[in-house]
């Protein structure tokens, strides 16, 4: 078996270290985890992998995840439940994760929401590598930047 993607419902422990093994074998991954921001999500993933107890340094684990991650999608929720008992959750940020020249990573917000109930706004930023990969799967003549610009104008 050689999967293209591994999907993990929630990463909280040793499964994070197993993701590093899959990443090194060339598998892509998608997972959920609890964090207060896009930046904190990568830290939570790294910390979960380190808590597995394997003899690997934080620098190595962080480098593996940062090089494998394209995007972090952060959701937030209302503090108070609605009348029907449900709690509203909305995407508050979609950020690109990019290795930095120094130790660590940088985050480039692509979409941001100023508050729950407000519109999710494109920042105008598209990392070139991400844009090329998305454009490869879109129908001819419908580049991602063109679609985003069209959506921005039609509001």
Explain what the structure shows.
This protein is an alpha+beta fold and 155 residues long. The chain folds into 2 domains: 5-123, P-loop containing nucleotide triphosphate hydrolases (Rossmann fold); 126-155, no CATH class. 35% of the residues lie in helices and 25% in strands. A 4-stranded antiparallel β-sheet has the order 3-4-5-6. A two-stranded parallel sheet has the order 1-2. Helix 1 links the parallel strand 1 (5-8) and strand 2. Helix 2 crosses helix 3. It starts with a strand and ends with a helix. The mean pLDDT is 86.
Task: Give the low-confidence spans.
Answer: none
Name of the CATH superfamily of the largest domain: P-loop containing nucleotide triphosphate hydrolases
Rg is 17 Å
Shape: globular
Short description:
The chain has helices at residues 15-24, 38-50, 58-68, 128-137, 144-153, and strands spanning 5-8, 28-31, 71-77, 89-99, 105-113, 120-122. With 155 residues, the chain is an alpha+beta fold. The protein is 35% helix and 25% strand.
